[in-house]
Amino acid sequence: MIDADTPTMLDRTEPAHCTVCCCALTNKILMVLFMVLLVFAILFGNLVTLAVVLGTKHFHTPQGYLKASLAVADLAVGMFVVPLSIYAEVYLMATDSAPEWTSYNSQSVSFHPCNVIGPIFAGCTLVSITTIFLLTIERSIAVLKPLHKDSVITRKRTTILIVLSWVGSFFLAVSPMLFSSEMALEYNSCSRMCNYALGTIGEFPSQAWNILLLFPAFDFTLLGGTVVINIISMSSIRQHSRRRKHLAESECQSTTKPTFSDIKAARTIGTLTVAFTASFTPIAVFVVGNVLGNKWCNFSFFAFWILASNSCWNVIIYSVRDQKFRLCAHKLLSREKTQPKAKQMNTSGNKD
Question: Phi/psi of residue 216, each to 5°?
Fold first, then answer.
């Protein structure tokens, strides 16, 4: 999302800016193939998630609402962010020249696609972090205070928090453009994505510097809080598991302890947290290196695309960790396969 002083597409011809993924024709083809497969994986996985959550009454819960919000944020990455990169790279391969808009930043033209796509990627990343934080809070209450779960965590409160997370995240995403005339967006030749950059090449002005620090400050605060809460929840789950080995649970005890489904859900959210932290860490390293003056062109490509690929991980985690989700997804896909056959049989029966 953040880029201090990396080249635009005009610099693509310079050897120093030829990234390891895109120098040879074979590497370019593999890169575009990866992007296309990533789009299909993101769209398929998150559409299945939305279909299961919205179409199954069991998932009409605060946790289900949060998972749906996370799926929508991931869908936006697959529908808008990655396709723009595919278009730019295919255009470059077909014509041997980059699209004209990639040669300029957003301050040089009246309309630049990155003015839309850049904040979408940044906003959806922030929404994902916020939603995982809210999921962690929701599960920690279910594990630590099971008797208060239904009164504290309501669908109305969850919906309000989801709306606030989207509004706040996208406000933060566009804040560099709103509060500093020195910030711009450009299609970066290293990351092959729309990134924030300084409108003029040079040293960081103090105002732009402070605005850029909002991203890592926000991300690390929420991710750090999420990790701490997950550790507390997992510690409580371990203690509960040990007690179950030594004591036979009475009816009274079962009402004051988290249910098995709550424990499984907490572990699933813990896995989500680990996956997102792993995908976000390279970006964090890149930002720190960028601040210190390192361009790390090759590394920036892998950092940004590892983060983008996280948009298709969630459905895999749900399928592996959540048996009910897996069964509902299987029923949904089986129903889609049997429907065309049923229509074919009806059509042939009508002809007879």
Answer: -65, -35
CATH number 1.20.1070.10 is the correct assignment for the domain at 25-248+263-326: yes
Domain ranges of the chain: 25-248+263-326
Q: Token pair of 264, please? A: 């499984």
pLDDT score of 68: 95
pLDDT tens-digit series, residues 191-230: 899 988 776 544 544 456 566 667 777 887 888 888 888 8
Is 9 in contact with 98 (CB distance < 8 Å)? yes
Spacing of C-alpha 150 from chain mean position: 28
Under DSSP, the state recorded for 71 is H
Phi, psi of 349 (to 5 degrees): -65, -40
Q: Are 138 and 232 in contact (CB under 8 A)?
A: no
Whether 257 contacts 244, CB under 8 Å: no
Nearest to residue 148, comparing CAs of 156, 138, 158?
138
Length of the chain: 352
In this structure, the strands spanning 193-198 and 183-188 are: antiparallel
Give CA 202 to chain center in angstroms: 31
Handedness of CA 111, 113, 116, 119 (dihedral sign): negative
Report the distance separating Cα 194 and Cα 141, nearest Å. Answer: 38
Distance (Å, whole) CA 171 – CA 37? 31
Structure tokens at 183: 């910030």
d(C-alpha 279, C-alpha 310), whole Å: 6
Alpha carbon 318 to chain centroid distance? 15
**Average pLDDT estimate for 254-260:** 62
How would you class 252 by CB atoms within 10 Å of its CB: exposed for 0-12, middle for 13-18, buried for 19 or more?
exposed
Residue 196: φ, ψ to 5°: -75, 145
User: Which tokens sit at 25?
Assistant: 């024709």
Task: Render pLDDT for 91-101 as a digit per residue (tens, 0 to 9).
Answer: 988 888 888 88
Token pair of 196 as six digits: 């924030």
Q: Can you spell out the DSSP letters for 194-216? A: EEEEESSSSSPPHHHHHHHTHHH
